[in-house]
Amino acid sequence: MLKIITVCGLGVGSSLIMKMTVDSAMRQLGIPCDIEHWDMGTVSSKTYDLLVTTEEFYKNFQNQENVIYLKNMVSVPEAKQKLNNYFEIHGIQQKENN
Question: Do the beta carbons of residue 26 and residue 83 sit within 8 Å?
Answer without folding.
Answer: yes
